[in-house]
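help with these tokens:
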Amino acid sequence: MAVNFYTPEITHSPVYFPRNGSKPFLRYNHCADSVFFRGQFYTLWNANAVGTENHPGQYIFLATSEDFRNWSAPRRFCEEALDNQWQPALLVVEDTLLICAWCDFNARKTFISSTTDGKNWVHQPVELVPEELQGKVVVFPTGHGTQLADGRIVFPVNYPEITPPGGVGSSRYAGIIYRDAKGLWHASGLTEAARYGDGISVLEKQTMPRPQIWEPSVWERAPGKLSMLVRNSGEWDNPMAIPPDETILYAESSDNGATWSECRPSGIPSVVSRNFTARSGKGMLMVMNDWLTASSPGRGPDDRLELTLFVAPEPECAELMPGPRVQFEGGRAFYPGGFVNDQKLYLVYTYPDYIMSTQVDPLPDFDRPFLMRRDSRDGTQIDRKQQILSLNRPEAAVFAVASTSMMQQDALCWKFRFRTCFRSEREFTIFSVGNAAILLQYDDETQTDRLILRRSGCPDFLLKGLPFSRATHFVSVTAKSDCFEIVFDERSFPFPGRLERKAVFGQFHCVPVWPLKFEPVRDRIEIFLDSIVIE
């Protein structure tokens, strides 16, 4: 089946931007979430007029819109609590009830706020601290809520300690709070990170047996089975030491959150920040920064670039693939929140001092395969008239996303034709699936290219020598449960292996250039779009 590109329309507008004359004039704006309720969009976030996080005078503010583009001036959300209000988490229940979970850390109180008309709110303090943590922690909601198949309402939470060295941003435990059929709220089971050296890499300096975890998101992958992605905060004063593929940890529950596995590396390379997850049809979405550098500025706040939509054709985080950029080009954007409705993604997030809204329309159709460009990596060109995809730099990447039904097959096959227009002497990956990559490698002795198969833990395998020419080559890669086979220019090469489904034209694990700078095109690998088949 030939495949098309996923190219949604992405539109942006500010929810709140501080400027002279703004009332209120808020210099610190962070931790936003959004919903659509009874004909209006609502966005809530915590903010203050000083410009410093966790400063006295930090309140939750609310703005509304009829079109997700033009927003009202913000107003205070709750006057009843003190002045250390944090991270509103929202959920609409059947368009009859809007719920917001949040906390006032200094007051040691957690609130469930609700409204049936969007105007009159009831703010209910709730006692949800698990018995073993009584008097030690605050229940701290962190992300958008979800309604499970059995009807219960769920919000992900952290449990930051109320005494130093704990506090906001530092928590050993994560979990969920939920509302039962009688309307009562409860805290469910706890999870924590695996121990250093037992699934989590040992850092250069550490004072705890396990890393801190912060800001979980939760989704239901099947009835009663929950999944969690949570930020690995490591040693809070040493975030730069966290390995790139351990910045996001994963846990799961098979009993609606009553018990959880330990949080272990998800294998999704990203930065240390909050993620947003949601179900979309049969698949799932995540919004997260898709940027990693080999060295400074590292994986801390200065690396929160390229906020990106990740997609997977089934609700498993291992299949997530980065695609369209959902922020403006350039600048730091982070802390996404929002919701999915009518095949559209409505997203709000933080720039360093203001709140932005973005709409992605439509979301992927997981009933059929598609191609998806990784926007955070340069070097991709698409000529729709000539039906040619050009990879011009080694970091260029276009994912070949299988459909939901294909994810259940015992074998997957990718076919395409390519040609080399011009080449430098650097290695250039043409196609990757799982831990195997087909790449061009320049041979200085013969001054020709070598087409190489590279697999983790195995020596490179020469598929064929390729004297430089603009000849067209046919490639077929078939992955099965116990092996995979490459057909190149009608010659077959079988190899032991396992069924992998995450495929990309280019390379998934590539380090972008830092600092960003102009670089002339030195390579051009052309792939014929009308030749690409996934079956």
Residues 226 and 425 are 48 Å apart (CA to CA). The mean pLDDT is 92. The first strand starts at residue 4 and ends at 5.
